[in-house]
Design a protein that fits this description.
Elements: E1 4-8, H1 12-23, E2 27-32, E3 43-46, E4 49-52, H2 61-70, E5 81-84, E6 88-92, E7 100-102, H3 106-117, H4 121-141, H5 150-153, H6 156-164, H7 171-176, H8 182-189, H9 208-216, E8 218-221, H10 226-238, E9 242-245, E10 249-255, E11 258-264, E12 267-270, E13 273-276, H11 280-287, H12 291-294, H13 299-304, E14 310-318, E15 329-333, H14 337-346, E16 355-358, E17 374-381, H15 393-407, E18 420-426, H16 428-435, E19 467-469, H17 480-499
Parallel strand pairs: 1-2, 1-13, 2-9, 6-15, 13-19
Antiparallel strand pairs: 3-4, 5-8, 6-7, 10-11, 11-12, 14-17, 14-18, 15-16, 16-17
Helix pairs in contact: 1-10, 1-17, 4-6
């Protein structure tokens, strides 16, 4: 009889881990406290409008597709994708009538860069050249492998590769070596917010995120991102896996330093292995109750770690189509972006805020009533622990008004406030309560240098056998493509421990 694996949480990494292990021959059962798959990759349905709840930008589609190809399926039957061009439109609040379209077509991108700062265009390509070299090192030697023990990182070949990443400069200072124009710098550096960290503090190698967009493009999945969650659920069930919804895991059962099941509704459910997709800090503090099994991740350690920013999201059902707004992804930058970034991470209420507008119904009209659009608006904000203000109705009203007033400056949105027919929102408190995101930090542990790569929590528990972790707070980090890699690592680690067959991480 095949060995039983319990996966805690049906987020992206939980589903992906479950699929890989079920495909490998294990009997996998997945326990999820919510009623639907996907975790933060979920959807909100409101009066005929459908919104992606969280993730919205598809990068590195090969990692999405790999999961289905592994199981002998055609990804196009599960997650039909279309490439976007331009990738996004960028507005600056002081010149709202002069937006910039950012393309992954190199000819068009060059024209745009030249229109912003011709004297920085050569520097832009030097930046691409330099970060591409670092990306190849990270992709082939760091992102797809675990650091189970110190010697996995602290060996001469690995250290030589790691030093080539030049990890000690920040994203902002790295880009500043090549580009002087502030607008152009902002267009390249802001994407570190995709993983919850400011470019002013982020290690420079995370500027590979915009490079991946520029060189490989951005895609849209028909039906929105929740299609991916539903597709993974479908594949897992087709493989014979079982999902238990509405079942909140209260504890990971540990005996003699070995995970042997979970506790749900006061009852123990035994298993041979446990894979935990709950946010790592939350899991260590609330689900792993055996103090010896925590290792160095004591409650005090968890509290002292650095956490990503959070997000405030507005979901607006509108009474018309926004033909004037041509693109799916739109970024509205405040000219005081650096002050905005500092305020987010210092916990201040934002007065110079940048935000993002996603109109999925432009690509898939079925996501809104006929002749209408739904607007998804995301503003990075402080996490709950950092914020020096409370998330109450007054704060929600303040940020809502700020966003709408800024949008009114953009052609097409002049009457936005009068065109809303239905709305809802999500605050950091919701990320904390609905998704067990520690401190409401949407992206988990902040990927500062001291919490990246071998310093980040790894998939295999250090002081407990048969227990594995996956998700955005574990190596290699946050973002949908990266947590899919996290799931791959967790499954490989478990299989290696079970079978004794060493996985060769030097081979792609």
């Amino acid at each position: 009889m095949s060995k039983k694996v319990i996966v805690v949480g049906a987020g992206v990494a939980g589903l992906a881990s479950a699929i890989r292990l079920q495909h490998a021959g294990y009997q996998v059962e997945l326990y999820e406290k919510g009623s639907t798959p996907g975790g933060k990759m979920n959807r909100i349905e409101l009066d005929g409008y459908t919104f992606d709840l969280g993730p919205s930008i598809v990068m590195m589609p090969e990692l999405y597709r790999e999961l289905f190809e592994l199981c002998g399926r055609d990804p196009d039957d599960y997650i039909p994708m279309q490439k976007l061009d331009p990738i996004y439109r960028a507005y600056f609040s002081d010149i709202p009538d002069k937006p910039f379209d950012i393309s992954s077509d190199l000819t068009e991108l060059t024209k745009t860069i030249e229109s912003i700062s011709e004297e920085d265009t050569a520097g832009f390509f030097n930046y691409l050249h330099e970060i591409y070299k670092r990306f190849i090192i990270a992709k082939n030697h760091i992102l797809h492998r675990p650091f189970r023990k110190r010697s996995d990182f602290y060996n001469l070949p690995m250290l030589k590769k790691a030093l080539k990443l030049k990890p000690y400069d920040t994203a902002d200072s790295f880009i500043g070596k090549f580009i002087k124009n502030e607008r152009l710098k902002q267009l390249i550096s802001f994407q570190t917010l995709y993983i919850g960290i400011s470019p002013l503090k982020s290690p420079s190698f995370y500027t590979m995120i915009p490079m991946i967009q520029f060189l490989y493009g951005v895609w849209f999945i028909k039906g929105g991102m929740f299609t991916m969650a539903l597709a993974m659920e479908r594949l897992f069930k087709e493989l014979g896996g079982t999902i238990h919804y509405g079942k909140a895991v209260e504890e990971i059962s540990i005996g003699n330093r070995r995970a042997d099941g979970i506790i749900v509704e006061g009852q123990k459910i035994p298993s041979d292995y446990v894979v935990c997709n709950a946010d790592f800090p939350y899991a260590m503090k609330h689900l792993v109750k055996d103090k010896r099994a925590k290792g160095k991740f004591t409650d005090k350690k968890i509290d002292s770690m650095k956490y990503s920013c959070s997000c405030f999201l507005l979901y607006l059902g509108m009474d018309r189509k926004y033909e004037e707004i041509e693109h799916v992804h739109n970024f509205i930058f405040n000219e005081n972006l650096n002050q905005n970034l500092e305020d987010i991470f210092e916990g201040k209420k934002l007065t110079n805020a940048s935000f993002y507008v996603y109109i999925a119904s432009k690509m898939d009209p079925s996501l809104a009533p006929e002749g209408k659009d739904g607007l998804y608006i995301l503003m990075p904000v402080s996490n709950v622990a950092a914020a020096d203000y409370q998330w109450d109705e007054e704060t929600i009203s303040y940020y809502r008004s700020y966003i709408l007033n800024e949008l009114k400056k953009i052609r097409g949105f002049e009457n936005i406030e009068n065109e809303i027919v239905t709305e809802t929102c999500i605050t950091p408190l919701d990320f904390q309560s609905k998704f067990n995101a520690y401190n409401g930090a949407t992206f988990g542990l902040q990927p500062i240098l001291e919490q990246s790569n071998h310093y980040r929590p790894q998939s295999k528990a250090t002081h407990c056998e048969n227990l594995y972790f996956t998700g955005s707070s574990t190596h290699p980090g946050a973002g949908v493509p990266i947590v899919l890699l996290s799931a791959r690592i967790a499954a490989q680690e478990l299989i290696q421990d079970d079978t004794g067959e060493m996985y060769d991480y030097s081979v792609r």
